Amino acid sequence: MAAATPNHILPGEALAALSALGDEPADSRFKSLPPDAEAAGLTVGQLAAERRNLFTGGFTTPVLALSAESVEHNLALLETYSERHGLAFAPHGKTSMAPQLFARQLEYGAWGITAAVPHQVRVYRAYGVRRIFLANEVVDPVALRWLAQELAADPEFQLICYVDSVRGVELMDEALRDRLPAGRALDVVVELGAGDGARTGARTEADCAAVADAVARTETLRLVGVAGYEGEVPRADPERVRAWLERLTALAADFDKAGRFSGTGLEEIVVSAGGSAWFDTVADVFAQLPPLSLPVLKLLRSGAYVSHDDGHYRRLTPFNRIAQEGALQPAFRLWAQVVSRPTPEQAFVNAGKRDAAYDLDLPQAQVVRDARTGELRPADAIEVTKLSDQHAWLHTGPGAELEVGDWVGLGLSHPCTSFDKWQLIPLVEADGTVVDFIRTFF
To answer: Nearest to residue 306, comparing CAs of 275, 283, 328, 278?
Structure first.
């Protein structure tokens, strides 16, 4: 996929690192790869070049497939959506932790990639990502010293990090002092919490101001904006999410009026929010932000869009509310094989908790591939009722056609906990041709 695609945003050494992913042996470290590929000493790139069929090319079950067409569709849709609404886009890389997908997201107009923890930043940097939004406060001195080294070594590297407490600012300043190049500071945004009972973030505007004042007292940190995550608004609904977002934009305006962004060499003010469930409300409220003293980078951070899903985000996606914008397509399908059919009402396939996301919803039986004919048919009257470590329990109702040996295609919910169970994921075209493999780094 992206390993062979030029990307002007990534430096040459990063393109080489992406290409080198294809040099890994196609061996038993990776689930479901054809055993004969390892016996022949093939690399992942060589196996991809053979363009084998997922069903007849020697892959073993269970095997997770990612639709090539749906991934491309989703990448293009969010690029178009962001452009239409005047938003910059830094998709959350924790969803996939796949540098090949990062490269494609950058090619499709992403400003940069969002991270949650320093380890993720290290992976991004290893594959040349130059702009990173770290949506967390970092107080680990080892991680902060490493970030300082990266900033010192690469003048083009831009990192923006959360701050949400005076104590956190003090710890960051202590770790960074005398470690940054002269005239360079770590860019930070004050995180506004989404209310009592929410996750991180300063709870009140007064708390936010105190954090901003603490930043101003340092020489190691530079205040560049405000941010938060509307997905953690307690009892989230359109009105509550909108009210919190209006607090966020008002905070940016108040900080600007108070001169908190002046005298720091800033070229733009950052205002950031936007997970995968409420980005339409983010777009609406951000569009109403009054003019500030500098241009505003309105930064959206949705991550699940790249694969979408057949459960949680299918229900919550804003594209359900704004159908005229288009629709995301579920890109994951987990193929498992029927290994037991003990009663007419019960069957078991060989994929379980080790293979399928189950933290939000159970997988959904969608399609059956007949072991005798290779034909596909809807998985009528078949329901996943439970997962064991290596089995899915299926209830088969009247009219369910299912035999031992048949393949069952399962739709998954929650991309973040689907990607992280697979180190290497076949990228598959609609006819079953495997065209590439996506490497993850969790």
So the answer is: 328
- The CA distance from 327 to 318, in Å, is 9
Is 193 in contact with 234 (CB distance < 8 Å)?
no
Name the amino acid, one letter, at 132. I
* Cα(294)–Cα(127) distance, integer angstroms: 32
Average pLDDT over residues 151-168: 97
Radius of gyration, alpha carbons of the chain: 24
The torsion of the CA quartet 247, 249, 251, 252, rounded to 10 degrees, works out to 170
pLDDT band, very low/low/confident/very high, at 9 (cuts 50, 70, 90): low
Q: Which amino acid is at 76?
A: A
pLDDT-based confidence at residue 14 (cuts at 50, 70, 90): confident
Residue 25 corresponds to which tokens in the numbers above?
Answer: 């042996």
Distances (CA, A) of 362 to 312, 367, 407: 10, 16, 18
pLDDT at 136 over 70: yes
Predicted TM-score of the model (pTM): 0.95
Structure tokens at 72: 């491309």
pLDDT over 70 (residue 305)? yes
Residues 6+ apart with CB under 8 A from 15: 6, 7, 128
377: its two tokens: 């048919």
Which is nearest to 419 in space by CA: 302, 278, 303?
Answer: 303
d(CA 270, CA 437): 35
Question: If you search the block for the tokens 């290409």, which residue do you land on?
Answer: 19
What pLDDT, in 10s, does the model give residues 61-103? Answer: 999 999 999 999 999 999 999 999 999 999 999 999 999 999 9
Distance between start and end Cα atoms, the chain: 20
Give the separation between CA 316 and CA 276, rounded to whole angstroms: 8
Alpha helices in 2-98 (DSSP H): 12-20, 35-39, 44-49, 68-84
Is 350:431 a contact under the CB 8 Å cutoff? no
* Contact criterion met (CB below 8 Å) for 352 and 340: no
Alpha-carbon distance of 96 to 182, in angstroms, equals 36
Handedness of CA 89, 94, 98, 99 (dihedral sign): positive
Q: What whole-number distance in Å separates Cα of residue 300 and Cα of residue 248?
A: 14
Q: What is the rounded average pLDDT for all residues in the chain?
A: 95
**φ and ψ at residue 291, rounded to 5 degrees:** -60, 135
Look at residues 33, 58, 67 and name the one whose alpha carbon lies nearest to residue 333: 67
User: Edge to edge, what strands does the sheet with 88-89 contain?
Assistant: 88-89, 296-300, 269-273, 221-227, 186-191, 158-163, 131-137, 113-115
